[in-house]
Design goal:
Main location: membrane
Number of domains: 2
Structural class: alpha+beta
CATH topology of the largest domain: Endonuclease, Chain A
CATH superfamily of the largest domain: Endonuclease Chain A
Organism: Undibacterium cyanobacteriorum
Number of helices: 14
Subcellular location: Cell membrane
Strand order of the largest sheet: 4-3-2-5-6-7-1-8-14-13-12-9-10-11-15
CATH class of the largest domain: Alpha Beta
Largest sheet: 15 strands, mixed
Family: Belongs to the phospholipase D family. Cardiolipin synthase subfamily. ClsB sub-subfamily.
Helix content: 40-55%
Catalytic activity: 2 a 1,2-diacyl-sn-glycero-3-phospho-(1'-sn-glycerol) = a cardiolipin + glycerol
CATH architecture of the largest domain: 2-Layer Sandwich
Shape: globular
Strand content: 15-25%
Order of helices and strands: EHEHEHHEEEEHHEHEHEHHEEEHEHEHH
Length: about 375
């Protein structure tokens, strides 16, 4: 496994839900003087997204170079076209990731923004109203979507800047040789060390240079866990290695807890629930979160190591899509994130082994069929990498 290089001297601010994220993002856009790069999976057409779009167009009007990447599937073809027209008329450059699957199945599921190479944002929050569902017919949520982002200042900003600018270039017309040179340049990312601030690293997942980087980061952290390992994820369908990592930690006496989002996609819920019997048998604790749409992709281990990002615990995120997470080695930051998780555990429903044993035979059959279908589909999509 390649070593993860943590950099000291980062100043990190945890942003919980859009209530904290959007004001921070809008303020940073308003302060930008030279350039803004933004990449997102969903760039909706609602009032929240329009407020961000207006801020980007205002920045372009005052001479800031603004470049936006949005995913064709996440945003939708119609909405992408609408934003392309409006942005072009107002001085904002825009590129669409993998329209019509011209570059295969991968999506960009990353949520990134870098401003003047001084400030960056990374996490799981899309550009969409916090109180509206982001799938199917829009429905109002009783509480804001449970999600997180991190505002970053310091050495890690350069890592995010290099990655998002590389994504921009790759989406344009680029000769094959230039793509190889770009890949080599990304490996030469300079490291800046400063002893004041948080110790952090940025990990990306793509299908060329960093195919298993995020999964390896989780496995490393799990392998070192001594007391607690808390995870929150809305889409749970990990490969065998990650499942075994959770079980092995629980077997060592680590308090392993999974906070899982449910109620969004029936097939996803069935697949996730197909893992429950074995995980519960080996001591992994499972909580289902029903209070609102749970969209966070976070973890805290031993109250010292934590991560916030875009990567789900499913085959799409771990083996196919482009993802980005920040890893943090800092007790104060990790304890703050853990506090949010503890509150969510108390709001969730803990699944007991007895509840699983009482399930009707036809429900267990649905779980097995859903798992078999999902495994087949993901192996096909990932060319056999998903296990």
């Amino acid at each position: 496994m390649a070593k993860i290089l943590y950099e000291s001297g980062n100043h990190l601010e945890l942003l919980h839900t859009g209530e904290a994220f959007f004001p921070a993002l809008l303020a940073a856009i308003a302060d930008a003087k030279q350039e803004i790069f933004l990449e997102t999976y969903i760039f909706a057409g609602d009032d929240t997204a329009r407020e961000v779009a207006a801020a980007l167009m205002n920045a372009a009007a005052r001479g800031v170079r603004v470049q936006v990447i949005m995913d064709w599937v996440g945003t939708s073809d119609e909405q992408c076209s609408a934003w392309e027209r409006e942005f072009q008329q107002n001085g904002v450059s825009c590129r669409i990731f993998n329209a019509w699957f011209r570059r295969g199945l991968p999506r960009t599921h990353r949520k990134l923004c870098v401003l003047d190479r001084e400030v960056a944002f990374i996490g799981g929050i899309n550009l969409i109203d916090d109180f509206v569902t982001d799938h199917g017919e829009p429905r109002s949520l009783a509480y804001p979507r449970w999600d997180f982002a991190v505002k970053v200042q310091g050495p890690c900003v350069l890592s995010i800047h290099k990655e998002i600018t590389a994504q921009w270039h790759k989406l344009g017309k680029m000769a094959f040789l230039n793509r190889l040179l770009l890949a080599r340049e990304l490996r030469r990312l300079p490291k800046v060390q400063n002893q004041q601030g948080h110790n952090a690293a940025i990990v990306f997942r793509d299908n060329l240079r960093h195919r298993f980087s995020i999964q390896r980061a989780y496995l490393r952290a799990l392998g070192k866990a001594k007391n607690t390992a808390y995870f929150a994820n809305p889409y749970f369908a990990p490969g065998r290695r990650l499942r075994n990592g959770l079980i092995n930690a629980a077997n060592r006496g680590v308090d392993v807890r999974l906070l899982l989002g449910v109620g969004e996609f029936e097939l996803q819920d069935l697949v996730a629930q197909s893992y429950y019997p074995r995980l519960l048998k080996y001591g992994v604790k499972i909580y289902e979160y029903h209070r609102t749409h749970m969209h966070a992709k976070i973890a805290v281990i031993d109250g010292h190591w934590s991560t916030v990002g875009s990567s789900n615990f499913d085959g799409l995120s771990l083996f196919l899509n482009h993802e980005a997470n920040i890893l943090i080695q800092d007790e104060r930051f990790s304890r703050e994130l853990e506090g949010h998780m503890q509150q969510a555990f108390s709001d969730a429903v803990q699944i007991e082994i007895g509840m699983i044993e009482k399930q009707a035979w036809h429900q267990r059959l649905k779980h097995r069929v859903a798992y078999a279908f999902y495994r087949w589909a993901l192996r096909l999509a990932t060319l056999g990498q998903y296990r």
